[in-house]
Structure formats: structure tokens, C-alpha cells
Write a structure and sequence with these properties.
Among the domains are: 139 residues, no CATH class; 81 residues; 128 residues, no CATH class. Helix content is 64%, strand content 4%. The radius of gyration is 33 Å and the shape is elongated. The protein has a 6-stranded mixed sheet with strand order 2-1-3-4-5-6, covered by helices on one side. By secondary structure, the chain is mainly alpha-helical. The protein contains 33 helices and 6 strands. It binds one DNA strand through helix 6, helix 8, helix 10, helix 12 and helix 14.
DNA sequence: CTAGGGTTAG
């Protein structure tokens, strides 16, 4: 054995130490200088080992490779050993003891080796060990690499460990150079954002000598997530080169902040600018279309999705989003067709479909799909159960609901959340079992949130139960004092019982808190895809005269068949004639009348409403579907109503 | 060998 090569004292290069004479003599390339041959041979061996490691699937295989390394001249090679450690960690082996022991035997570990181990500890969320190793690396004279910092920042962000993050920030300056490394600084910004200190991230951003599209996008995304679309938009406008991710952040930002029209507008601009689109961009647009609930947009975005390069058939994510969208646009049939056409399905696909059926009152289909789901590999999650419970609730299936509710924890290990209790309260409340519902709220093991009391209050509205309504409302007035809907609901309950002095007390409370009622409105798509909006009593539509006439004709025909206006739906202390007039001009009735005169006889009418449908409108639309022979679909704030031949899919139960 | 975007419920 001849010692040929230098001992690598600088820890940044690979610590190769020896090469055997035997290996050398087998190589007859006499004209090549000595060290070049050994380099070549070792490089060859290294790359063979790395390839083998990439193919390793289990511990036995890795140990074989390790044995080969130990017998070769690569026994101290940081490059190969780092790869070995990374492979182990990729296969989910804990850092201790095996990968750590490999590291411990290396005399001069280089930063790559340190980094492999640090990353391992980070994955195990052992932040302290990572930091210890980092200090050891510094003490040993090895310089850190930028990805050591990025990994550390990432871990601090995930653990929301701001103080440690700031220390590491200090290190980047101390070590020198890294505070100008884009990878490092960008992950630092991300760390501050994840720790909830957006302004710190912004400060770093403002002081950066050079920034790239990633720095910008991080901040735009952070503003969008806090709902500050103005700041997001300002930054975005100033971004010199907008790439796909930056555009996508704006699209999904608007979608997540309930600004679907803006989301679609940004998407259209994105397409004009010629930037590529991928499925994540589409998710934002699809979600926006779902919020709009307009069939025109639904078909448009499905076409865009199908034309895009990720396959004519939908991917799991896009497919699942489309299912949700079609359900919310009133087309459960289309939603189910997408569901059936998907090659692969996940928990989103099933949950969205179950929720879709539930929203449309197709409880039986929802349950059937749930039964099918549990035979697959896909595990139901908390959202799935919200779908199943909603289905029970909308169909008045109290007993099945209780069964599912118990099954959830027993068989699937999902602890009922406040949202699940909301479903149960809704289920009992709708079925008229208000006392039981109230009892459940009082005895639930977790703190009831606004949703739970809101469900109880909503049930009191249907069953005209002012006493429990007052209890629920008082909780709500504390939990969410500025939520206008609760005051309106309580006032409506009092009004329906004729307790007018209580109604005016609630109205006074509203005024005292500076709250004003949101105007109710409905909208409908005409045949040409135009959207027509109607407010209550709205006579601004160009065809108002015809609309009024059509409505009067309709009501006349209904009265001839025994229809009586539900005067108790009017929350004002006025005479019956005025109540009749108020009911007559409800926005959904105007939209319905416009639908009747503006669409072809026999075609479907779709109406969307921003609040719950009232009882009187519900019965009028039921009658209209029969007399006029029309399918009518109404989406209110809670669910869908499919009216067909005088019957609604909700079974008069909403 | 590292930095940015995502779907269901509420």
C-alpha cells in the first residue's frame, strides 16, 4: 500500500485519503499522470455507489453498500457517506443511531456531511440537535453552506420558533456573505412570515440589495393570506417579471378572500400575458367559479382544464375541485360525471362529492357514496363526516346521524370538533327536537363556537321558539358582536311569534352597535350568460313592467289553487295588506318572474340568493315549478333547493 | 443541492 495522495485538511473538499497500488497497476494508462488515474478510478467508483444507493429500497441493501464503501478507499469520503446518510433518511430511518454512527467515524466531516445529518434532525423536528450540530460544524472550522441555513430557517418557520430564527439570522451576518445569498435571505423572509411577523419579512425584503421573483412572491402570498389584497396587489404591480407562481398567488388570493370576479379577471390577464398555467393556477380559478355559482363560468373553466396539457382527463386535484364547483353551481349531475370519470380519487374527491349530494338534498346518494368510500383505501376525514352529517341533517335522518356521529370516533378515531357538533345541533334542531339540541350544546366536551349557537338559533327560526332563540342569540352577541345575521335571525323569530316589542329591542341593540342589515338580493343567469341581479323591491331592471305582470299572473294562478301568503315571514309589525306587498317583492320572486319571461318554456331556471330563502318564496316557487312545468334550482346561503312538479328536494325542511 | 403557489368544511 502506497500513500499517494494528500490528506485533505480543508473540510470543504472530499476527504479522500488513500489509493491502493494494486488498483493503480491494473490500469495501464501510462501516459496519464499518476493522480489523474486515481481520480478517474475513484470518480468511477463513487458514481457507481451513488447510483446503487439511489436504487436501494431497504436496510439490507444499504448495509451491503456500506460494507463495500468500508472496504474501498472511499471509507472516509464525505461525498459518498453524505449520500448514504441522505438515502437512509429518505427511507425514514431515524438519525440515531445508524446514520449518526456513520458520521461519527469520519475524521474530517465536510459541510455536506453535516448538512445531511442536520436535515435528518430537522425532519425529526429535533431542532436542538440540529443547532448543536451546526455549532460543532462551526467549531470544527467547516463553513456552513447556504442550504444549511435554508434548512434551519425552514425548521424555525415550521415550529414558529421566532427567537431561534432571529439568532440564525444573526449568524448569516456573522459568518459573512450569507446575508446576501438569495436562497438564504428568501428562506429567512419565509421564516419571519411563518412565525407571524410579516413586517419583519417586509423589512428584510425592503433592505435586500437584490431580490428575485421568489422574494416578491413570498410577500405577495403573505399579504394575500392575511386578507390584505391591496398590499398584495401593489407589490404585484411593481414586480418586474411575473412568473406562473406569482400570478397564481394573485388568482388564489382573490379566490380565498371571497373576490371571485377579481380572481377570474386576474386569470384572464395571466392568459393574455402568455404565462403558462398549471393545475394549481386552475384550482384558484375553479374555486372562484364555485363561489360565483354561474354555469357559464363552470363550463368555461372545465374546457380550459381539459385543454390544458395535464391530460384530457382530470387529475385528482383538478377533478376534486371541479366536483365541488359543479355542486355549487347547481349541477350535481355534472359533478358526479366528473367524479365517475376520474381515474384516481382521493379524500377530497369523495368528500366534495358527498358534500355535493348533501347540499342538494340527495342524502341517500351521499350515504351510498360514503359506504362505497369506506371499502376503499381512502380514509374519511373530519370534512367527510361533515358532509355525511349534513346529508342526514338536510334529510331529517336523525337516527342515522347519531349513528354516524358515534361511529366517527369509535371506528375512525376522529374526535368530533365543534363543527361536527354544529351539524348535530342542526340535525336535531331542524327535526324540531330543540330541547335535545340545546342539551347537546350544554353538555358538549369542547367549548361551543359561534357556529354551534348559530345552528341552534337557525333551528329556532324554523320552529318559532323564541326562548331558546334568546339563549342562543345572547351567546352569539358575545362571541361575534358584529355579525349582523344573528340579530336579524332573532328579530325574525320574535316577529314570527308576534313579539313586536322584543323585535324593536333587538333592532335598537343593532343600531347601538352601528350595524346595518345587508340588503338581500338574488341573481339569475339569462340565456345569453348575462347575470341579472335583483334587490328586494328592485324596479330598476329594464323589463320591470313585464316582470311585475308575470309575477301577478303567477300569484293569481297559485291563489286559485289554494296558495295563501305566509304573512308570518314578514318581520315587521304592519297590517296584512302591507305584509302581502312586502312578500310580493322579495328578490327571489323578482328573479323567478324574470326567469319565466326570459328563458324558453320548459327550460331550467337557476336562481342564487345571498341569504336563506323565506317560507313564502319557497312555497311560491314550489307552486311555480308545477304550474309552469319548470325545473327550478335555487341556491341559498345554506343549500340547494331543486323544485320539480310542486316538490322541493329539501322536503320543506331547511 | 437548498427559496415562492393548491382543492373539500367553518
Amino acid at each position: 500500500m502506497v500513500t499517494l495522495s494528500r490528506k485533505f485538511s480543508t473540510a470543504t473538499s472530499d476527504s479522500l485519503t488513500y489509493i491502493s497500488h494494486k488498483q493503480f497497476s491494473q490500469n495501464p494508462q501510462k501516459s496519464t499522470p499518476f493522480y489523474q488515474i486515481q481520480q478517474q478510478q475513484l470518480e468511477h467508483l463513487k458514481s457507481r455507489i451513488v447510483t446503487t444507493l439511489d436504487g436501494c429500497k431497504n436496510l439490507t441493501q444499504i448495509k451491503q453498500v456500506h460494507a463495500r464503501i468500508l472496504l474501498s478507499d472511499l471509507e472516509q469520503s464525505c461525498y459518498v457517506l453524505a449520500k448514504l446518510i441522505r438515502t437512509l433518511i429518505k427511507l425514514n430511518f431515524p438519525v440515531d443511531p445508524y446514520p449518526r454512527s456513520i458520521f461519527n467515524r469520519v475524521k474530517y466531516p465536510n459541510p455536506f456531511l453535516y448538512n445531511a445529518l442536520i436535515r435528518g434532525y430537522l425532519i425529526e423536528e429535533r431542532l436542538n440537535e440540529s443547532i448543536e450540530l451546526y455549532s460543532l460544524m462551526r467549531k470544527g472550522g467547516a463553513g456552513p453552506l447556504s442550504f444549511t441555513f435554508t434548512a434551519l430557517f425552514k425548521a424555525c418557520g415550521a415550529k414558529m420558533n421566532m427567537s431561534l430564527g432571529r439568532q440564525i439570522h444573526g449568524q448569516t451576518i456573522l459568518v459573512g456573505g450569507f446575508d446576501e445569498d438569495l436562497h438564504v435571505v428568501n428562506s429567512m423572509i419565509d421564516m419571519y412570515i411563518k412565525c407571524g411577523f410579516l413586517e419583519f419579512g417586509r423589512k428584510v425584503f425592503d433592505e435586500m440589495p437584490k431580490r428575485d421573483v421568489i422574494s416578491w412572491t413570498e410577500l405577495i402570498s403573505a399579504y394575500a393570506k392575511t386578507g390584505n389584497m391591496e398590499s398584495a396587489g401593489e407589490l404585484f404591480d411593481g414586480l418586474p417579471v411575473k412568473d406562473m407562481v406569482a400570478w397564481t398567488v394573485m388568482v388564489s388570493g382573490f379566490a380565498q378572500n371571497a373576490k371571485p370576479r377579481e380572481a377570474i379577471m386576474v386569470f384572464e390577464k395571466m392568459q393574455e400575458s402568455g404565462v403558462e398555467t398549471d393545475e394549481i393556477t386552475l384550482l384558484g380559478v375553479i374555486s372562484a367559479c364555485a363561489q360565483l355559482g354561474a354555469a357559464k363560468y363552470a363550463d368555461w373553466i372545465r374546457e380550459v382544464a381539459e385543454k390544458s396539457e395535464f391530460g384530457g382527463k382530470h387529475s385528482v386535484v383538478v377533478g376534486s375541485a371541479l366536483i365541488d364547483m359543479y355542486s355549487k353551481c347547481g349541477s350535481v349531475g355534472d359533478a358526479y360525471r366528473v367524479f365517475q370519470g376520474m381515474k384516481e380519487r382521493n379524500v377530497y374527491s369523495y368528500s366534495s362529492m358527498i358534500l355535493g349530494f348533501a347540499m342538494h338534498g340527495r342524502a341517500h346518494d351521499a350515504m351510498k357514496l360514503f359506504d362505497e368510500m369506506v371499502t376503499t383505501e381512502i380514509k374519511p376525514n373530519r370534512v367527510t363526516f361533515i358532509g355525511v352529517l349534513t346529508a342526514c341533517s338536510h334529510a331529517g335522518m336523525v337516527e342515522q346521524g347519531w349513528q354516524i356521529f358515534e361511529l366517527m370516533e369509535k371506528c375512525y378515531g376522529i374526535k368530533p370538533s365543534a363543527d361536527h357538533y354544529t351539524c348535530m345541533v342542526d340535525l336535531l334542531g331542524r327535526a324540531g327536537r330543540l330541547q335535545e339540541a340545546h342539551e347537546l350544546v350544554k353538555t358538549m366536551p369542547i367549548e361551543p363556537h359561534g357556529g354551534v349557537w348559530g345552528a341552534l338559533l337557525g333551528a329556532c327560526r324554523i320552529h318559532k321558539s323564541p326562548d331558546i332563540a334568546a339563549i342562543a342569540a345572547n351567546h352569539l352577541f358575545e362571541l361575534e358582536p358584529y355579525c349582523i345575521g344573528n340579530y336579524v335571525l332573532l328579530a325574525n323569530v320574535y316577529a314570527s311569534c308576534g313579539r313586536w316589542s322584543d323585535v324593536s329591542t333587538v333592532r335598537k341593540l343593532m343600531r347601538a352597535r352601528g350595524l346595518r342589515k345587508n340588503p338581500a338580493f338574488s341573481w339569475i343567469e339569462s340565456e345569453k350568460g348575462m347575470v341579472h341581479e335583483f334587490f328586494s323591491g328592485d324596479m330598476t331592471h329594464p323589463r320591470s313592467g313585464e316582470i311585475k305582470q308575470a309575477l301577478e299572473d303567477l300569484l293569481e294562478r297559485l291563489e286559485a289553487k289554494g296558495y295563501q301568503p305566509h304573512l308570518s315571514s314578514v318581520p315587521y309589525d304592519v297590517n296584512d295588506e302591507d305584509k302581502r306587498r312586502i312578500l310580493m317583492i322579495h328578490s327571489e320572486k323578482l328573479a323567478l318572474a324574470f326567469g319565466l319571461i326570459s328563458t324558453l318554456p320548459g327550460s331550467e331556471i337557476r336562481i342564487v340568493k345571498n341569504v336563506r330563502i323565506c317560507e313564502d318564496c319557497h312555497s311560491v316557487i314550489c307552486g311555480a315549478s308545477q304550474i309552469m312545468g319548470r325545473e327550478i334550482v335555487v341556491r341559498d346561503i345554506m343549500r340547494f333547493h331543486h323544485f320539480h312538479d310542486g316538490i322541493c328536494s329539501c322536503g320543506n325542511f331547511w
